[in-house]
Amino acid sequence: MSSKIYDCIELIGNRIIENKEFLTELDREIGDADHGINMARGFTEVLNVLDKDSEDIGALLKKTGMTLLSKVGGASGPLYGTAYMQAGKVCAGKTELSAEDGKEIFEAVIAGIQKRGKAEKGEKTMLDAIIPAYESYSTAIENGVSAEEALGIMCVAAEDGVEFTKTIIATKGRASYLGERSIGHQDPGATSATITMEAIRDFVKG
Ligand SMILES: Nc1ncnc2c1ncn2[C@@H]1O[C@H](COP(=O)(O)OP(=O)(O)OP(=O)(O)O)[C@@H](O)[C@H]1O
Ligand SMILES: [Mg+2]
Predict the structure, then answer these.
(1) 21, 29, 35: which to mutate for ligand 1, most atoms within 8 A of CB?
(2) CATH, residue 25
(3) How many structural domains comprise the chain?
(4) pLDDT tens digits, residue range 176-195?
């Protein structure tokens, strides 16, 4: 019997793999046309190596992070790798998660990405989806909203964050070489991060 955590990572992986061309096209416009290819390669390997029967959320997230770190490459490999490994640390020994755990995971993920990539909100990176998503999710949870509803609110904020990346200049990563010409294009990493959060929302919704 497969555990829930594997099924959730499988859904994330399949959504990333389905969006390989789309993510690569976005990266063609402001980068080097490899984001979808990188991420799909990473998640194909993740789905190969994960133990489907393990219920240890921390262990599976950690292994996901280590696999992404070694297989994705580029800027996003270390950033996503760190994000999943930090999430795994928060979830060490856990076999289920509360809405409050979700908040702690978000905090660890953002801290990990920022430690590694030194970006702030507003630099046209994945953080422009993840930070607003975290803020909306936390506010919702603090206001006593159900986990399922909070995940819906989180995704709306992430999607708005992706829209926002179209309006700003990239100041981190390869897209920063384009300067003003990066305006008008949505950030590939913010897009893959939003696809990830939508998969989590849909998984929890069932
Ligand atoms: N410092 C950073 N902090 C957060 N996210 C970043 C940073 N630098 C880049 N990114 C994210 O990574 C995405 C690009 O990922 P991709 O897989 O295409 O790597 P890459 O830029 O091609 O790497 P490289 O230039 O090393 O080949 C961007 O869209 C952006 O969201
Ligand atoms: Mg790229």
Answers:
(1) 35
(2) 1.25.40.340
(3) 1
(4) 999 999 999 999 999 999 99
